[in-house]
Amino acid sequence: MSELITAGRKRVPRALDSRSFPGVGPVAIAALVFLYLPMLVTTIYAFNSGDQALVWEGFSTHWFGYVLTNHTMIDTAVTSVQLAAAATLTAVVMALAFALAVDGLRRRGSALANALMAAPLVIPEVVLAVATLAFIRMIGLQPGFLSLYLAHTTFCIPFALMPIRSRLDGIGREVFEAGADLGATAVPMLWRITLPLLVPGLVSGALLSFVISMDDFIISSFLSSAGSTTLPVYLYGLIRRGPTPAINVVALLLLALAVVVTSFTYLAPKKKRSES
């Protein structure tokens, strides 16, 4: 215990004390500034009254009204939400089925199956986009909402699978063995034991998939068509024609949505535990 020192309320090993590495603190601060300063600038310039995105001409909420009444922008936002919701729901169901199936194949190639499923996480997205477009063409589909739905579902599955697998591994097989000893068959065990215990992983996987789908640009730009343009693709078109504060307003609204969702998912489990 002599190797431990007190840092605030927590005791950390001396070897991990940041004071032993003088450059760590400034680098960490620089990383935080680099990460959050652009968001602060975007938030401030969302209230710019001028026509240029980064030329301040005075405070105004004019561009909020413009964004909220721009039918094209609203339509692309609705398309993105519908696409993300549909892809997330399908991806979570397929990831759950895959996780349960692989969990029963622990000794028969589960590692290979997991590696194949996780491979899209490290494959360059442009490669996935080209391959997906070629496959979509090969099966006779055209770029549009259905093609986007299939593509988004495909690349969302690994993201949904990660928290589900992590949660499933953390449950412990003794829980299922106890259920089997009490006479539970496969279906009741799935509905009454497995799914309730997997809820945190399912929620995390769904949120991660939804955000990834909403944020995707490369694959969406390959598969979008008239009437199925997603919000990131539309915003990129606006930026190429000359950015306006409307871009900052959309970014601010998406950031606010992310903060609300993240806060809810972080605080809701704590409130539930405190009530129990």
Automatic annotation (TrEMBL):
It is found in: Cell inner membrane; Cell membrane. CDD domains: TM_PBP2 (cd06261). InterPro entries: Bact_Polyamine_Transport, MetI-like, MetI-like_sf. GO terms for cellular component: plasma membrane. Residues 77-265 form the ABC transmembrane type-1 domain. The keyword rRNA-binding does not apply. Belongs to the binding-protein-dependent transport system permease family. CysTW subfamily. Required for the activity of the bacterial periplasmic transport system of putrescine and spermidine. This is Spermidine/putrescine transport system permease protein PotC. It comes from Propionicimonas paludicola.
